[in-house]
Amino acid sequence: MKLVFLGAPGAGKGTQAKRLVEKYGIPQISTGDLLRAAVAEGTPLGKEAKAYMDRGELVPDSVVLGMVKERLSQDDCKKGFILDGFPRNVAQAEALDKMLSEMNMPLDLALNLDVPFDDLMKRLTGRRTCKSCGQMYNIYYSPSKVEGKCDKCGGELFQRDDDKEETIRKRLEVYRAQTEPLIDYYSRKGILKSVSGTGSIDEIFNSICTILEKKAN
Ligand code: AMP
């Protein structure tokens, strides 16, 4: 299954994508995670990206496209992949179509995780991630048992630099202006499905799996 995950920041794409990885054994390609890894390693690409990320703006397409192309060329993507946080604008979507058609592996589905705008703020400001294993929590909806510590591995929980309130406002603005038009883009291509992103993680996951299984048959 070759899948693009759409949805606003905080819609839960990362959480659901991780579940899909476990169930279907296909890789999750998160451009946000790849960029954060480059920032942490202090690579030239990471240094360039950090300033945009801290402002809540999109990193230039040229940087992101190179990264995605390299990742999609790896062998584990042959049987399918989940793109999470990419594409983020129409130019990236067009570039992706071109890339995938050259690689002879067109997209099967664009899945839009739909969450009311007002819920997103609380989801994002409450988000915490484990430094060691990447497990995610939310201090309002799904807190860890001990504050600041991961239930799974005891690692330290942290708040992403771009999950601060001002940056979040900007990221949501950028989403509306640049990413939301992709719903139309994939709808016109006839591969869009929408799922409600409110409810429990399990309920949402089940709705997603139902769609994937229908598509596979
Ligand atoms: P995310 O974890 O997907 O919310 O991404 C965090 C930040 O990384 C975004 O606010 C952007 O600055 C940058 N970013 C992630 N994916 C992309 C992309 N496809 N295009 C441009 N910038 C991106």
Detailed description of the structure:
This protein is an alpha/beta fold and 217 residues long. It has a domain at 2-26 and 79-115 and 173-216: Rossmann fold, CATH 3.40.50. It is built from nine helices and eight strands. Strand 5 (127-130) and strand 6 form a beta hairpin. The longest helix is centred in the C-terminal third of the chain and has 16 residues, at 201-216. The mean pLDDT is 94. Bound molecules: adenosine monophosphate. Adenosine monophosphate binds at residues 9, 31-32, 35, 52-53, 56-59, 64, 85-86, 88, 92, 162, 171.
Which key terms come to mind for this protein?
217 residues; alpha/beta; Rossmann fold; 3-stranded antiparallel beta sheet; binds adenosine monophosphate
- Uncertain regions: pLDDT < 50 for 5+ in a row? none
The CATH architecture of one domain is 3-Layer(aba) Sandwich
- Helices, by number, come to 9
Ligands present: adenosine monophosphate
Q: Based on helices, strands and strand pairing, what is the structural class?
A: alpha/beta
What is CATH's topology name of one domain? Rossmann fold
Main β-sheet description? 5 strands, parallel
Extended strand count: 8
Q: What is the top-level CATH class of one domain?
A: Alpha Beta
- The end-to-end span amounts to 12 Å
> What strand line-up does the widest sheet have?
2-3-1-4-8
- Tell me the overall shape: globular
The CATH H-level homologous superfamily of one domain: P-loop containing nucleotide triphosphate hydrolases
Helix proportion range: 40-55%
Instruction: Tell me what portion of residues adopts beta-strand conformation.
Output: 5-15%
What is the string of SSEs from the N terminus onward? EHEHHHEHEHEEEHHEH
CA radius of gyration is 17 Å
The chain-level mean pLDDT equals 94
